[in-house]
């Protein structure tokens, strides 16, 4: 699985905003083999147990959630 994790990290786009965890693609790349090993271990644990760690599974507010809460929100309706 380590090779798959390395390939996935290489495919990730850099220069993007971090997620709620504050971890950027650049940080993961900078960690080299250590970062790949940690991510691989985490994914293997999730796969083996079938459980996502609670700090990863907490729901986060998304931009679309904030948009819907806006008084100016209008749902998109395609033309017919």
Describe this structure in words.
Keywords: Endonuclease, Hydrolase, Nuclease. GO terms for molecular function: endonuclease activity. This protein is 56% helix and 0% strand. With 80 residues, it is an all-alpha fold. It has one domain. The chain starts with a helix and ends in an 11-residue tail after the last helix. The model has no long low-confidence stretch (mean pLDDT 80).
Structure in a nutshell:
It comes from Plakobranchus ocellatus. The protein is about 55% helix and about 0% strand.
What Rg do the Cα atoms give? 17 Å
Distance between the termini: 47 Å
Say what oligomer this is. single chain
Q: Describe the sheet with the most strands.
A: none
Mean pLDDT: 80
How does the overall form come out from the CA principal axes?
Answer: extended
Low-confidence segments, given as residue ranges, are none
Number of domains: 1
Strand content: under 5%
Element string (H = helix, E = strand): HHHHH
Fold blueprint:
Layout: H1 2-11, H2 25-30, H3 32-49, H4 54-57, H5 63-69
Q: Any key phrases for this structure?
A:
80 residues, mainly alpha, 56% helix
